What does this fold into?
Amino acid sequence: MFFHIFNDDKNKLETQRIIKLSIFIVFSIFFILLIDLSYKVLIRKNIEFIPGNSMPSFSLSLSLILGTMAYISSLIYYSSTKKDDFFIISLIYMNLSVELLITKGHNLIIFDKFIFIHAIFRIILLFYVAFNKKGISPLITKHKIITSIVVFLFSVITPMINYRIFSNNLFAKDIYFYATLMTMIIILYIIACIFLSKKSLDDCELIYSFIIASILLIALRGLYWICEVLLPNITLLKTNNVVLLLTILSFLLAISGVFNEITAKNKRSSLLQNELQVFYHLVEFNTSSSIILYDNKKKVIYTNKTIRERYCKSTKLKDQLKEVEKLFVDSIFIDDSEKNATKALFNKGNWEGKLILKNGKIVSAYIQILNDENKNYFAVNLKDITEEYTLTKNIKRNEQLLSCINNNVQDLIISVDNNGLITYVNDSVLKTLNYTYEEIIGMPIINLLGKNDEILNQLKLEDEEDSIKCKLVGKHSFVYVESIIRTLNDNNEIPYGKVIVAKNLTSKKRLENLAIKFKEAKAYEQVRNEFFANISHELRTPLNIIYSTIQLLNSKHETNYVNFNDFYGKYKQGLKINCYRMLRLINNLIDVSKIEVGFLKADFTNRDIVFLVENIVSLVIPHSENKDINIIFDTNVEENIIKCDPVKIERLILNLLSNAIKFTQNHGEIFVDLNISKDWVKISIKDNGIGIPKEMQASIFDRFVQADKS
It folds into this structure.
């Protein structure tokens, strides 16, 4: 079933087809009659009439009645439709009716040649109707009665004046002048009807087809007048009957057209009324929407049953409208202002937004402006969204909270859909992988995982492991992460994606390295303290010896000891040894500092490295014999001249040998091996003492580092 209210285009096309067919039939009949009559007049010189010698008074009275009915019908149609064209058409039929009234008792054909001004007047009105698009002049609209009286008087007076003026005029006897004039009038009638046909199609009004047929019959009367004046030998006592018949048919067509149009409109109105009743029920009993209609003064003039039952306490309709008016007028606009809403209404014709009613309810409102006779009405469709709005607000708040948490955690969070396309990442992912949000959203996850088959397989499975270590490829670098993968399910437990939570192992490794460095720093601090303690002891011992010796010598000197020189000679060597000992210790500290800052410079000379090392070993052998330690020197060549600093080499080898003697038990062995190749000289010193732990071997040459002596 299709509602006519929604089927206007189809109905219009159907009506236009009917109008086209009607106009075609009307013009076809008219031109057939025209051709037939012209043939009889111009070719055969003969016209046959229906027998009868006079114009029946009954027929004339009938035509007057029908003319009056045609005039009244046009006025009725104008009154019901408010179409100004039909007021003008009613004046045409008034003119025709008055013309008939005046010709009563006269010969119609003889009298017609003195009332051609009426025909011209009717043609002017027809052209006005055909080309009128904006409505008739306000002067006529406001003074319809006066206009009708003027036309009536014009129709009465004009023929009488014309008859008296032209009856004795020379032109009155010129039949060809009047024949030509009548021919032009007929042509103008036809042209006016053609333009009226176009208007009928444009306005999709079938009634114009009846009016056109009626006017063409009036025009056809002129042909018979032409026949009379051109064929004087033909008896025209019966012509009045034909002209009167055409006039009666013309009036009947006009009345039929109005009757047909009013009947069709009543039928359409009945259908529309039934359809509007359906729409009224849709509005009045709509349980999902509350509908309000108010005027320019914000006075509510209609509400549907839903809003009355939902928001009104009164049972009387008048009181209910007032309640709704107070409830709606004082509402608060959400995300907009009343000023902007009003501006949108008058600019676009509608506004949509949210309102808080006076009772605290939140509604979505759609307001549309309606125009009726230069007066604005506003139709409002309200839908209660209090629960939905509150829920949405809570969801947004939770989303903001979740987003804040996600974007402030250090873990990388990535979600993908079932096709492996990235749908969400947190800020940590963007910062770590150097992508923008627009670049990474929609990217296949495989672009970040590379060729990591383990995690790709995990994304395809439902069973989930505890964690997977993998590599994430960024825009300019990559990071190692430890990931946990979980499946995302909807309310029906149907998987729609995966979420990956990854911990950046780079940060973890950095923390581990910091912990190691902190531990080393603590150990370094402890060793340094021990070192300074040892240095203090090493410095204090020779200083104490020197100081004690000086005190002893001073006491002997003060007592004028006779053998003071012999006594001094006894302690001179001890002073000298301890001074050298202190000087060596201080020089070593200075050299270590110079080495660390890169300030110590070597004094290179060409020396035989084999002789130099062997000589140093020979100097140490007397000290090793005190502990019965055997030092074995071995070399693969007997002589090799190299560029070196002999003093520093001597200090290095002496330091190593002294430590070897110190930490080697009695009766032990020390091996000094000199291996010379084409590019390198390798000096290796090895003992069979307690050794150095593996964890200390990498740092024994660091400043202030010393292995445990035990």
Remarks:
- The two ends are 108 Å apart (CA to CA).
- The CA atoms of residues 638 and 683 lie 14 Å apart.
- DSSP finds 23 helices and 16 strands in the chain.
- Residues 602-697 form a domain with the Heat Shock Protein 90 fold (CATH 3.30.565.10).
